Amino acid sequence: MKAVSSVSSPMSRFTVVLAVMLSCFPVGLAAQDADTVSVSLPRSYRMRMVGIGSVNLLDTYLSPENYKGTEVRFVSLASKPSRWKALNQRIVHQGDVSVSHNRADNNDELAGFYNFQYSLTHDWQLTEALKAWAGGGLDATLGFVYNTRNSNNPAQAKASLNLAPVAGMAYTFNVKGKPWVVRYEATAPLVGLMFSPNYGQSYYEIFNRGNYDHNVVPTTVVATPSLRQLLTLDLPLFGRRFVVGYLGDYQQAKVNKLKYHNYTHAIVLGVAIWK
């Protein structure tokens, strides 16, 4: 099976965003208090964020057209020690809805997804200010795509369960004696299972007539070359810790002769709680 087209375009956009955010480093470092010791990102913290951005959606079961529009997303991320002292628990909840339009702007697709991730990670304190972590765990997604113009097959259900590695880094620097944190994390599915109708198969055949046709598909990174990443700046303001950043979510699949992609570029805003 051939791999889905690469995510070079989303990655090039991410590179620009990354360069802009990293350009704040010299400013932050110049403002550091020489007598203040950097405070590393703690093992226990929570982040709650709302994101809004662009979405590019393709599902050939519904339409051969690309649909482009706007997505709104909620992200909850928590890290805390596990029962194994050397490992941390990483728990992520994400929910998003989007409305997108075809090139002729005469048809819409509505989509909604919920994603849950549970991982165990190990931390490495590389320097006083620089921390890295890596690990892996489960990544589960449920959702739907609805085409407002289709009559026979207007909707497509989405469900997948994957084993996914995760890795990240956090750099802490001081501005006027207060710790600021630049944090980057990425995760990608490695192997898993995905639900999909087969090419030309209707949901009536699957659920009403019980005609199974390879609808639970084993997948690998070859069939689902996908990536989620989050780059944030965490800063103290008005007695709280605020978060601003970029979320890139590039989901792709090619199974049962059907192609699917859902590319999201979003700006996120939120709060962080250190424990």
Number of helices: 3
Radius of gyration: 21 Å
Largest sheet, order of strands side by side? 1-2-3-4-5-6-7-10-11-12
Distance separating the two termini = 47 Å
Oligomer class: single chain
Q: State the total count of DSSP E strands.
A: 12
- The structure class reads mainly beta
Shape: globular
Question: In this structure, how is the largest beta sheet organized?
Answer: 10 strands, antiparallel, barrel
Would you identify the regions where 5 or more consecutive residues have pLDDT less than 50?
Answer: 24-37
How would you explain this protein's 3D organization?
There is one protein chain. This protein has helices at 8-22, 24-30, 203-208; strands spanning 45-59, 67-81, 87-101, 108-125, 130-147, 155-175, 178-187, 191-195, 216-220, 227-237, 240-255, 258-274. With 275 residues, the chain is mainly beta. A ten-stranded antiparallel barrel has the order 1-2-3-4-5-6-7-10-11-12.
What's the gist of this structure?
The protein is mainly beta and 275 residues long. It is built from 3 helices and 12 strands, in the order ααββββββββαββββ.
Keywords:
ten-stranded antiparallel β-barrel, 275 residues, 10% helix, single chain, 12 strands, mainly beta
Architecture blueprint of SSEs:
Blueprint: H1 8-22, H2 24-30, E1 45-59, E2 67-81, E3 87-101, E4 108-125, E5 130-147, E6 155-175, E7 178-187, E8 191-195, H3 203-208, E9 216-220, E10 227-237, E11 240-255, E12 258-274
Antiparallel strand pairs: 1-2, 1-12, 2-3, 3-4, 4-5, 5-6, 6-7, 6-8, 7-10, 8-9, 10-11, 11-12
